[in-house]
Amino acid sequence: MRKAMYFGNCVGMSMSQVPALHQMIEDATDITYKTLMQHVDRDEVASIFTFYDWGNGRDLTLKRDWAVSYHRSKWRGKRCYYIRHSAIEYIFI
After folding, report:
1. DSSP string of 33-47?
2. Strands (E), the chain
3. Coil, helix or strand at residue 83
């Protein structure tokens, strides 16, 4: 199965992409960390969230961070997954 790749986050979006972002958020379904990681490229996630423990002995992991949530939705008709971290959506398509 081909993994979803990092598309971008809401901070870097143009104003023309905002309606699609709102629709994606409105239509989203909550998923677990495990489900997210089955569908996205782990190395890309690790390269974005470098401050978490990815096997290097730090205490905090993305999986155990209570302030992070995981979602499945559609971005302009395509299946996507996203991580909401500090009220920023990181989108993988």
Report:
1. HHHHHHHB-HHHHHH
2. 6-9, 29-31, 68-75, 78-85, 88-92
3. strand
The number of CA neighbours under 13 Å toward the Cβ of 6 is 16
Do the bridges between strand 88-92 and strand 78-85 make them parallel or antiparallel, or are there none, so unpaired? antiparallel
List pLDDT tens digits, range 31-50: 999 999 999 999 999 999 98
Q: Which residues pair with 8 in a beta bridge?
A: 91
Partners of 71 in beta bridges:
30, 82
Q: Residue 38 CA to chain centroid, in angstroms?
A: 12
